[in-house]
Amino acid sequence: MSDSTLPSTGGSEFGGQRLTPAYRPSQVEKQAPCQAGCPNCGDIRGWIGTVAQRDKLGLSKEQAYERAWRMITDVNPFPSVLGRVCPHPCESHCNRSEHDEPLAINAMERFLGDWAIDVGLPLPVIDGEAGPEWIGVVGAGPSGLSFAYQMARRGYRVTVYEGRDKAGGMLRFGIPDYRLPPGVLDAEVERIQRLGVELQLETAVGRDVSLEELKKRHAALYLGIGAQAGRGLGIPGEDGPGVWTGTEFLSLVNCGESVELGPSVAVIGGGNTAIDAARAARRAGADVTILYRRSRTEMPAIEHEVEDAIEEGVELILLASPVRLERQDGALRTLVAQRMELGEPDDSGRRRPVPIPGSEFELPVSAMIAAVSQAPDISGFEDLDQDGGWFLTGNGGAIGDGIFAGGDALGLGIAGMAIVQGRHAAETLHARLRGLEAVPAIEIDRQLVGPDEIIMEFHEKRPPVYAERLAPEERLAQPLAEVSGTITEEQFLEETSRCFSCGSCFGCEQCEMFCTSGCFTKLEEVGPGVYFTLTLEQCQECGKCAEVCPCGFLEVN
Ligand SMILES: Cc1cc2nc3c(=O)[nH]c(=O)nc-3n(C[C@H](O)[C@H](O)[C@H](O)COP(=O)(O)OP(=O)(O)OC[C@H]3O[C@@H](n4cnc5c(N)ncnc54)[C@H](O)[C@@H]3O)c2cc1C
């Protein structure tokens, strides 16, 4: 939407003296904070508003759902998956948190994702952009598949080479079933395949086919190889039975293999992998203790996952770090650890853990899972730009002539980040192949609407909706059962109506009601954010319209 349907006259001339009107309104669409918080810059306000305003927009419920889902899948082909696992930074930016509580955006995304799977909606294609080039992708994780989707929907022929026997990357082999059922992932991957994306499983580049061969075969390549290799701790006693890295252990569990853990497991680390490993070990019947060398504040894991782990009986020892493992006849017996305190911030900005001399203590353990970090396995890609084993990319993910890379192989991140990097690389490559204007970085530089610009009192206070969840004892009794449910349709619709529509008109009609000069005219054909025209001839410059606009869309200048 343009700034205003009428350009401002910039003031009037009177008796030779120029008077600048103080309260001349204009319609200015601004960026919503949820969108600013989303790594993918998704138009969250747009898709929520499409459902919330469906009656005003003349849409049936189903039409609104479909339109909203298409807005999501324009940038992310995995709404059902991300609706389950995204740490949803969008919600922590929501202006509604200044009124009652932020919108349950993640739960709404999941509802729409599940609905689209149920009704069998195909992913949206982009007509008329096709090129003859054959594009190769290495790695069928979220990043590679996001890239493949964005190229395939533009009409390119795409082949994805995946080393393992199934697609999904860490979404399948890292995140446990109780958080992300494999059927949900399968449905969203299959939908990408239905666009014509060819998946060559059990084809590892560097092992089964060389990078050189793929360079000859394809017009361009995208490397989404992730960071699959778990890192050990490097402490004495680590080599031998009873020790796994977090990703090794979770991959075994997710493949349905039984892992002999014994009665007491120590998990080392404070990220998502550590929490998932601890909860999976707990479901296998072990007593589980997590050791993390910093405090809870610095824990990178998703906060509610940590809460869930504690509810399930996982013990947390903070400010503690392993020193050595002791074995008896080869079997693990004891983990010796020491207490830490926090010193000055390190390069990551988190306070550095410093050992406290003489603070060693012992934990009896039958197994240890080291979930401290992962790194890419770059064998086969050694000639490409890298920094300490991580790919180094330039604009749009370019790493070489016709080669792009993204996702965890650039640095450990979240699935949403891997998806946006795949999308950006695809858009950049497409622009290059078709000689189009270069694609800018994915960010929006519109003005952001803060809580001060929202009239909170316009909206009654209402808590967000919550999905049903399994009780901790039920979770342990059914280790694969999904912990959180999907919100109901009724809850979904109720939640969409909590959106403030920050910075975009939602047709509340306040401006029209308060304008005594008739400057606002309702449009016959409305659209999201577009309900009224504004004509300023009769404007008395009282400023009332902007004063009563609850979403910060009207401005006076
Ligand atoms: C245990 C765990 C829990 C997580 N929880 C969350 C969460 O709750 N929310 C969230 O947003 N993120 C989470 N993450 C992070 C998220 O999963 C990753 O950021 C994301 O999967 C990275 O995507 P990617 O496509 O870059 O890499 P990956 O998902 O790792 O996929 C890489 C793919 O490339 C394949 N591959 C690698 N090398 C080759 C080769 N040489 N040839 C062919 N194929 C190859 C791999 O087999 C794999 O399929 C979690 C990660 C882990 C490990």
Structure description:
With 557 residues, this protein is α/β, with parallel strands linked by helices. Helices cover 29% and strands 20% of the residues. It has 18 helices and 25 strands. Strands 6-5-4-7-22-21 form a 6-stranded mixed beta sheet, with helices on both faces. Strands 9-17-10-11-12 form a 5-stranded parallel beta sheet. A hairpin with a 2-residue loop joins strand 13 (320-328) and strand 14. Helix 2 runs antiparallel to helix 3, helix 4 (79-85) runs antiparallel to helix 6 (105-119) and helix 11 (246-254) packs across helix 12. The longest helix has 20 residues, at 415-434. The model is unreliable at 1-20 (pLDDT under 50). It binds flavin-adenine dinucleotide (FAD). Residues 85-87, 138-144, 161-164, 169-171, 174-175, 204-206, 224-226, 228, 247, 250, 272-273, 276, 302, 377, 380, 407-409, 413-416, 418 line the site of flavin-adenine dinucleotide.
Offer a quick outline of the entry.
With about 550 residues, the protein is of the alpha/beta class. It has 18 helices and 25 strands.
- Number of continuous helical runs: 18
Cα end-to-end separation: 18 Å
* Count of DSSP strands: 25
Helix content: 25-40%
**Compute the gyration radius: what is it?**
27 Å
The small-molecule ligands in this entry are: flavin-adenine dinucleotide
- How does the overall form come out from the CA principal axes? globular
Which strands sit side by side, in order, in the main sheet?
6-5-4-7-22-21
Q: Average the pLDDT over all residues and give the rounded result.
A: 93
Major β-sheet annotation: 6 strands, mixed
In the predicted model, the low-confidence regions spanning at least 5 consecutive residues are 1-20
Work out the strand percent: 15-25%
What structural class is derived from the secondary structure elements? alpha/beta
